[in-house]
Amino acid sequence: MVCVVDFHVVPKITNMIPVNSFDISHIVFPSNVHLADPTFNTSNSIDALLSADIFFDILKDGKYKLDNGNLILQNTEFGYIISGNTSRFSSGSLHCGLITKDFETLNDTLKSFWEIEEIVPTKFVSDELKKCDEHFLKTMARDTNGRFCVEMPMKDNDIELGQSKSTAIRRLKLLERRFVREPHIKDKYVELLQEYEDLDHMQRVKEEKPGLHYYIPHHAVIRPESKSTKLRVVFDASCKSSNGNSLNDILLKGGTIQPDLFDILLRFRKYVVAFSSDIKKMFRQIKVHEHQQDFLRILWRPSPEEDIVSYRLKTVTYGTKPAPYLATRCLLQLAHEGKNKYPLATPVIENSTYMDDILSGADDIITAKEMQRQLIGLMKEGCFHLYKWSANSEELLKDVPTENKEFLFNENDELVKTLGLSWRPRGDTFMYQMNLQEVPVTITKRTVLSFISKLYDPLGLLQPIIIKAKMMIQKIWLLKIDWDQNLPRQEIENFQRYVAELHQLKDLKIPR
């Protein structure tokens, strides 16, 4: 076989592998096996690292199971390589790293599970994004306080929306039935929508005027993992009106204009002083022009004994198609307008912000503190407020009010969830706190895929574990069985063993 490979020469690929040498005297190798690395058990440096797309090209026929099936010998162009586990190996710390690309129904989560490692083509600016950007610059304004006011970009001027109020009434009554079953949700929901009104994020429609309008149904979503917002109001702007069109059908989406998640997380690992922060109620800090607010109507009453009241939402609304674009575009505009006054804050917004999460740092505490000061100042000029501050430096958090901190340097070694990762600032390590549900009694293709597709590894640090899951999926797929048919006994045992091993991840600590 001929394979042409381009190598990048670097002073060092990684630490010594394995971290600790171990004894292999108990392993009996077949006499005809030539190992690609006869000293694989001895800690040594790595000479070359081949990418995953080369791996399958070097595989050859020939496979042996050793040590009661715990170890596998696989033949390659370089000789046999060994993989697996054995309880006789001495334990040690684990250093791992892999460059991948990060880009819920079962189909969606499974699709994301596979796509997370794909390298996407070079980004290009779509015609829709160009149109949205031109529209933003033409219609965007800032009030006397510096707050942004925007228009939702529409597909064309010939807008066609049917009647939507009857559907919104029906959905509100369904929500009220849920409140009867779950009164604790009702209390929080009433509180949240009262906050909307108190903060002038929505107002009562005092009189009906002729013209286009749209009523958005809404419902509650519970997020038990969230420290601050356990319940969120979700607005369904994709609900069809009587003519078959929804609000989202006539709106342009815009596009992604922030860096990829993987780039932000990778950049976060290079700083000596690292910090994270959130933009509080980011969408709701941006007004929608008054002439468009009737497209953002909702129906509400705190109690079924009261009359149903029409309200109009006054701010960028989560659930409308262009909301993410409009919010992030306002941030980039804020950075652009403040680049001379806040030179350290601008690149943080441009390169280290993912939606409302900021993940950044500096090479020394003095620079980090100045960066923090500038970020707070710049955000304040756009009427944005930073909170949930965390850092690996107590000095950086010293002047942050307690109510704005996510992490406190106290006796509790707290974990901070940021962009899907669990970060322990005190030890400055990443950890994997997976919410592993109990293995169902009946194990089918559906239950296995549903379980595995929820494994989240945006940095690729768990690839030795994730690849086992992918191999399991492939093997189950080859069985050609129905979605809800019980798996063969061997596959059930393999899955149960894999889940048991996943619980060990709680002890894994990876230096940031």
Total helical elements: 13
Distance between the termini: 40 Å
Strand order of the biggest β-sheet = 13-14-9-15
Q: Structural class of the helix and strand makeup? A: alpha+beta
* Mean pLDDT reading: 86
Helix content: 25-40%
The largest pleated sheet is described as: 4 strands, antiparallel
User: What is the overall silhouette?
Assistant: globular
* Counted beta strands: 19
Rg over C-alpha atoms, rounded to the nearest angstrom: 27 Å
The parts where pLDDT drops under 50 for at least 5 residues are: 89-104
Q: How much of the polypeptide forms β-strand, as a percent range?
A: 15-25%
Organism: Trichonephila clavata (Joro spider)
InterPro entries: DNA/RNA_pol_sf, Retrotrans_Pao
Protein name: Integrase catalytic domain-containing protein
